[in-house]
Design brief:
The protein is α+β, with helices and mostly antiparallel strands. The protein has helices spanning 22-28, 35-46, 74-84, 87-106, 111-169, 178-187, 194-203, 219-223, 250-266, and strands at residues 8-12, 15-21, 54-60, 66-73, 227-236, 239-248. Helices cover 56% and strands 18% of the residues. The longest helix has 59 residues, at 111-169.
């Protein structure tokens, strides 16, 4: 089929699309009404949109006048040919369809290319999903870290206040017997017996279990800073002997307070 209506490219809102001259189509269809009346009626009746279905072009004439030409997309042109419902309309419609088929046949994109692009798109989607999941994990870890730090800061503040209370209570003393510790805990609302503390220390293996050193703190308990072995000198039958007695440090008293405070809070 010969080129009954020239097809050219026009700029539709930044896109280069195939188009035709609306006036040429009007002439080919042998429409009896005037061109301006025909094109405006068709645009209004079928709700064609400018810059999508057509573009309007102002042309200034030599006599100072102005005329408006319309470049139609081939899709709009096909619709106009169908609504004319005559032989010319059918010819024009067949012509546009043939031109589209020719253009499609010229584009020979191997199937492998589309599959490859699909694989790339799927891989990118998986990577984006993985990144989103990783970001969620990172956010959760950051929030958890902040919460842990807040708990640590709060605990440090509580321990500092408790240390001040201990110093005031014992008037500056730095080492305490288990009996003194029980007395202090009682003043803090924790009714703990001395034997309970002894049992806890034996369970942790922080007291020696020998016959003559059962009140001596182990090296481990001293290493963590809970105890210091205080040495006392005494006489037996005129002979001087030494005895070690494990005493709580301020840190140890804070630790034993926390140890017995937790079950007490759970039982409230």
């Amino acid at each position: 089929m010969q080129d009954i209506i020239p097809i050219f490219t026009s700029n539709f809102n930044g896109k280069q699309l195939n188009s035709i001259d609306a006036r040429k189509l009007h002439e080919f269809l042998e429409v009896k009404s005037k061109f301006a009346t025909w094109i405006q009626n068709r645009i209004q009746k079928y709700k064609f949109k400018e810059n999508i279905d057509f573009i309007s072009v102002s042309i200034f004439l030599e006599n100072g006048g102005r005329t408006i030409e319309y470049h139609l997309s081939t899709n709009m042109a096909k619709q106009l040919t169908m609504v004319e419902n005559n032989e010319k309309g059918e010819q024009a419609r067949d012509y546009f369809i043939q031109k589209e088929e020719q253009a499609n046949n010229q584009i020979q994109t191997p199937a492998i290319d589309s599959k490859f692009l699909l694989q790339i798109a799927q891989q990118m989607a998986k990577k984006e999903e993985l990144i989103e999941r990783q970001q969620i994990v990172i956010n959760d870890l950051e929030n958890e870290t902040k919460e842990q730090q807040n708990r640590i800061d709060k605990k440090d503040e509580e321990n500092q206040k408790l240390k001040i209370t201990i110093v005031d209570f014992f008037k500056g003393a730095e080492l305490f017997t288990r009996r003194q510790v029980c007395h202090f805990l009682g003043r803090q609302g924790l009714e703990i017996k001395e034997q309970q503390i002894t049992d806890y220390l034996n369970q942790k293996k922080w007291l020696c279990n020998g016959e003559h050193n059962y009140n001596t703190a182990t090296a481990e308990s001293c290493r963590i800073g809970w105890f210091v072995n205080e040495i006392s000198v005494y006489e037996v039958n005129g002979r001087k002997k030494t005895k070690e007695y494990g005493k709580f440090t301020v840190e140890g008293l804070v630790g034993i307070y926390d140890t017995f405070k937790k079950p007490a809070e759970l039982n409230k």
